[in-house]
Amino acid sequence: MAFCRNAKGPLSRMLTTRPGVSFGQSYSTAATATPIYQSADDKTAFRYAFGVLSRRFCSQTPPAAAVQMSLIKQLRERTSAPIKDVKASLVQCNWDIEAAQTDLRKRGKVLAMKKAGRVATEGLLALAQNEGKAAVIELNCETDFVARNEIFQYLALTLAKQALLVENASQLVSGVHPVGLESLEELKLNLEHPKISGDTTVQNAITEVAAMMGENVRLRRGFVMSAPSPGVLSTYLHTSPQPGLGRIVGLLSLEIEDGNSPLEALQRVGSELAVHLVAAKPLFLTKEGVSSDALESEREILKSQAESTGKSQMAIEKMVEGRLRKYYEEVVLMEQKFVMNDTMNVKTLLSNLSKEVGSPVKIGNFFRMEVGEGIQREEALSADEPVAQAA
Predict the structure, then answer these.
(1) Average pLDDT, whole number, for the chain?
(2) Distances from the Cα of 320 to the Cα of 19, 294, 311, 315, 374, angstroms
(3) Which family does the UniProt entry place this protein in (predicted)?
């Protein structure tokens, strides 16, 4: 607008002095600063011509406030980008919404790369399962607000489904196996979401969502557990905003010797034990499975505590052994009190189940994972080891 106001004087002189320009029946063949219109019709014609030229020179005039708000809303709905970034791109692109959308994607990807080093402790776990195995991935972001975003949740679920497609030789052996993140990130996928769609790679999709969210978004880890045969694979997601998503996950496999036994009872107890995993946080399956380092560390702590009482060495030894039994009940799955019926432990629960189905039943593997666990330690040590508990 400032340009238009400044241009009005020169335009007027150009219109009044240019040879051969006519308005009505008047002509000007010499340079003069005197207006050439001599009547009301001439004056109207001059104003019309000046308006046409002014509009050409002022084509970049911002639209009305109501139109601006409408464009901001439309682009915000298309991209989910922050409002301040949406407006900045529209202004930069002279309120061309298509060009602004392209600008947002370019700008967002650069910003996403700059934020890649920031600590992201929030996010979601996504679980996908088929008849043969279950896959769980952890997708991190910086705030819980982004974790609740539908695009972030859609991406997490898509990545879990892709993790089921990653074949690894180690998965042929029963147990819990990590998903190779490099292999997963290179996979092609077809996104079918109104705000993020098309063929791309996993890594590009993560970068795209990070650009939209304005936060560091990263695929931190993934694990796969194979289903036993015969037996069942049971899962549970805690704090779940929608099916397949949660903040804590529990997975375990129940194996049965007789493949002809009905599996309904195993599925029921397996589901209850998956909930137990989330609540009780076991670290080991059996007492024999407790690592020597963990046992020795706990023994030293208990001995130090007992010695502070000033009792005799024999009494101290008895105190340590008694407290070790309590330690086993806290960290060993088979020794823990069953959370849904604390009158028995998990070992007794499985014994009762074996009698019910008429065949020995045992826990093959178990796995528990929580969003953000160990991230601070990981950042401090620059390590990439997972902190999930598994057997």
Answers:
(1) 80
(2) 110, 15, 12, 9, 29
(3) Belongs to the EF-Ts family.
Residue written as tokens 């397949």?
244
Strand partners, 193: 196
Rounded mean pLDDT, 63-79: 80
Beta carbons within 10 angstroms of residue 178's beta carbon: 16
* Single-letter code of the amino acid located at 175: G
What sections of the chain are H helices per DSSP? Answer: 2-17, 40-57, 65-79, 83-92, 97-114, 144-147, 150-163, 181-185, 202-213, 264-280, 292-307, 313-331, 346-357, 375-381
Check whether 136 has a pLDDT greater than 90: yes
The backbone torsions φ and ψ at residue 214, rounded to the nearest 5 degrees and listed phi first, read 75, 25
| The predicted structure's pLDDT at residue 127 | 97
Question: CB 332: neighbour CB atoms within 10 A?
Answer: 21
Q: What are 135's strand-pairing partners? A: 128, 224
Q: Residue 120 and residue 152: Cα distance in Å, rounded? A: 14
Name, in order, each residue with C-beta under 8 angstroms of 138's C-beta and a sequence gap of 6 or more.
Answer: 123, 124, 125, 219, 220, 221, 222, 369, 371
Return the structure tokens found at 323. 């407290």
CA distances from 358 to 264, 266, 343, 361 (A): 13, 12, 23, 9
